[in-house]
Amino acid sequence: MIFRPDERAQSTLVGFIVLFGILVIAFSSYQAVVVPNQNAEVEFNHFQDIQSDFTEFRSTLVNSVGSNEERAVTFRLGTQYPARLLALNPPPVSGQLETIEEGDRTVEVNLADGENIATDVCETDAPTTNSLRYTPNYNEYGSPRAVSYENRFVAQEFRDGNVYDRQRLIQESSGEISLLLLNGSVSRASQESYSFDINASRRNRTADSRTVSNITIPSQYSAEEWESTILEGMDITATDRDDGRVRIEAEDGGALGNYNVSCAAAGLDRDPAFSPNPPSQDSSDDGTDILNPTDVVLDNIERENDGNDKYLDLTFRSVNSNATVTDARINFYNAKNEGQTPSNADLSDDTGSELATLTVGGEFEELNSPVEIVSDYTFQLDFDKNPGSGNREWFILTLMFEDGSSRQYFVDVP
């Protein structure tokens, strides 16, 4: 009798090895693709949170002027990734919040006769201001570089360019140059939230308009950005100074124009270094906007059916006061597939009547008829290309209100 070797155990072993290899490949794919994509979404959501924190900071800063009360602000410097049973996460997200104090921080508003009126209206020989900047330390979401506040506007810095909200430093419509100067120092790197207080002075104004020749201010941003983007539409020219400041003057070499000049100072976790305090000004007149833009919030974003439609419904809510929208723009659109980035969108009211056609990255467009937001109100945006849905597709919509204030809304496409 001849005995042959039993090969059944070998086939079982081969099957186990094949199955184990499939599991290893599946887990490796999950670790290499799924986990980074999920973490990138967490980082994307955090970047939207920190942008909201800066918008709230700006509004709190404005509303603190003349209030005689400390106002607390909070910044979410980091976030946690979701817990995973087997897969590995990188270290939690952290970030650096700090004031920018390098260079000459002095502000000048020079009149036609050469006088720096800022020293009088700010009631100090050296009116100075700092910038506040947050730099994230993301592991996957590589597009954003920083978020900053300076000179009454918030800026988002991305690898392919910066996005600025509407500046309120030079207001041609109301004929005012409005200085709101930051004093004090902040420096914190953390994965947690960080809070500090704002202590603001009252606002002092010139009694009448003055002929302003030029303005020199400290800035993180170049003269080219001021001229082409931040002060877009104004007949100005900007020049970089060697001391970290930017000089703004009229394009034709004449005066910028006739302006009332106002000044207030705010200390970060301290009293302001100087305190404009007009003795004749009523304490209730703090020089803030009639409408606080944070009173109008984006409550809901909806997309019809299965996500194949080109339009979105955006529902806004006015919290404490009626608000009338007069202009709108789409500042920026971040698409997963650049070839599918919309170039324009039709904005309609809640009855379907077209209000304006907004060019992505274009200027403000005046609405065909102003829209009053009493409580809830829904706008419809109909894009020329189908917006992608899901992870990291978003755009920035800015609404301008009847009183001249404005607010940016970061819309995550569902």
From TrEMBL:
Residues 269-290 are annotated as: Disordered. The chain crosses the membrane at residues 12-30. The keyword Transmembrane helix applies. The keyword Membrane applies. It comes from the Archaea. Keywords: Membrane, Transmembrane, Transmembrane helix. This is Probable secreted glycoprotein. It comes from Natronomonas moolapensis (strain DSM 18674 / CECT 7526 / JCM 14361 / 8.8.11).
